[in-house]
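Hi Y.,

Following your request, here is the sequence exactly as I used it, all 119 residues.
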Amino acid sequence: MKAIEIIHDSFKPVTVTANEVGDFYAERINGTVEVQYFDEVIRTYAIEHESGNISALGFMGKYRTGNKLWRVSISDSFRFDRNGEPVERITYTHFGRDDRSGNFTKSGIFFAPKQFYAR
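Below is the corresponding structure, written out as C-alpha cells. Let me know if you'd prefer a different format.
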C-alpha cells in the first residue's frame, strides 16, 4: 500500500453548496471518496471526471524550497501500454502548477480541508 492512495471503488455521489466549499469547487465537486492516508482512511470531497479518473480534494502541501502552502489534489489515472491498453492505476499529487522541475520537490502533504476551502 502506498502512503497516499485513492480507494477507487469508494466514490459516492454528493451535491455540495458554495457555503461549504466556495463557488469554484461547488461547481466541480460531484462526490466523496475514501483516501488511504498513511495509516488511516479519510473520506473527502472529490471530482469524478468523465474519463473515470478521480481527484480527491482537501489536502495541502509545500515544496522543499519554500514555506508557502499550496492546495493539493490527489488524483488517479491509468498507465497504458504501447497498445493503449490500461496496465495499472497510478496515484499522483497535483499542486496546481507545472512542477516537473527538480526545483519543485514536494514535501509535507497533509489533510487540511478547512485551509483548502478557505476563501
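The first strand starts at residue 4 and ends at 13.

Thanks again,
Q.
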